[in-house]
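From the thread on structure requests for the teaching lab: each student submitted one protein with a one-line request. Submission from student K.M.:

"Model Regulatory protein RecX from Filimonas effusa, tokens only."
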Amino acid sequence: MPAGKFSISKEKALPKIRHYCAYQERSHHEVKEKLYGFGLRKTEVEELMATLIEDDYLNESRFAEQFAGGRFRMKKWGKVKITHELKLRQVSPYNLKKALAAIPEEDYLETLQKLVHDKWTSLKHEQYINRQAKTMAYLLQKGYEAGLIKEALAKERQQP
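Reply posted by the TA:
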């Protein structure tokens, strides 16, 4: 065991990991890392993971949908950035697709249009080409698709 690492029994780890999962939705990857951090062996980790799934403390589909919905509503992230973050958390492609589908398309496009409007307005003293480039870069960084950004920018420029 490396210096500073501690090890607890599987029996002591179960209530701790249940609390960890009950506090907020977690990905399977996060929970595995936490269990390995407790100093547990692979077989013990797999047994605890199975128990958590059976007891509905751990549900990858629920995690992915809440993560995607939360990042979209609270941080106004686009689907590209949400996809990237879910892949980092090792969410399955099926659950990733399902989570993105749970974001209403109308809300998504409306949010994008509002972000375009706000950014475009904030740059009103910039030259046209800089204004367009900065707005585009900002929305790409937020994780929106280039094609959708261009459409939203075109709509914004038509506004009086």
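TA comment: Residues 105-122 form the longest helix (18 residues). The chain is about 75% helix and 0% strand.
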